Amino acid sequence: MMGKWKRFGTETTGAEIAEAAVVLPLVFMLLLGILWFGRAYNVHATLTRAAQDGARLAATSTCATCGNQDYSSNAQPVSDAIAQALMASKLDPTQVTPGTPTYCSCGVTGVCTSPVPCSAIGSGQANVCVQFNVQLAQSASSPGSCGVAVNFQYPYQFYFPFTSLNLQLIQLSGDAQIKGEY
């Protein structure tokens, strides 16, 4: 009987299957994490690029190819440009929500008590916050410059089973500011 137990303790048949049963779920979870965090990074990069495109369009005083349109009075084309950039990456522009206004009016020195209101909330397919004639990059050594700020948020949901991140909804933001071309 003792020989049987000794042989059973030193037997290695089936050890590979047991090791695979322990390691494969961990490797699978690691690959899923890389996939979903990579997608979140891709969505964030797309939002940043869309915000930059919108800010660039809003900063131009006129558009030569669209009949010299002044965007500072009509932010609809800015919202449409952001929507097009999002649709190019297969993101739904109707899920965009405006960010909060954070920039002060150009020329305000000292403490800003009320930020410039958004000009384009709810226009077009994308609900974005476009702020015209705002103070950019103000610091102690530089008075800053005037320009345009664009910000918005986009929801992103993780699908990461068996973790606390499963079905977590986070708001990724797209923010851009650009010096005005006046």
Plain-language structure description:
The chain is α+β, with helices and mostly antiparallel strands and 182 residues long. Strands 1, 2, 3 and 4 form a four-stranded antiparallel β-sheet that branches. Strand 2 and strand 3 form a beta hairpin. The model has no long low-confidence stretch (mean pLDDT 80).
Question: What brief labels describe this structure?
Answer:
182 residues, elongated, 4-stranded antiparallel sheet, 19% strand, 37% helix, alpha+beta, 4 strands
How is this fold's topology laid out?
Elements: H1 2-10, H2 15-59, H3 76-88, E1 97-98, E2 129-136, E3 145-157, E4 169-179
Antiparallel strand pairs: 1-3, 2-3, 3-4
Helix pairs in contact: 2-3
Task: Quickly give the structural class.
Answer: alpha+beta
Mean of all residue-level pLDDT scores: 80
**Helix percent band:** 25-40%
How many angstroms does the end-to-end distance come to? 95 Å
Instruction: Please tally the helical runs, counting DSSP H or I stretches of 4 or more residues.
Output: 3
Rg on CA atoms, Å:
26 Å
Would you report the number of β strands? 4
- Count of the domains: 1
In what range is the share of β-strand residues? 15-25%
Low-confidence runs of at least 5 consecutive residues = none
Major sheet details: 4 strands, antiparallel
Question: What order do the SSEs take from the amino end to the carboxyl end, as H and E?
Answer: HHHEEEE
Q: Sum up the overall morphology in one term.
A: elongated
What is this entry, summarized?
By secondary structure, the chain is an alpha+beta fold.
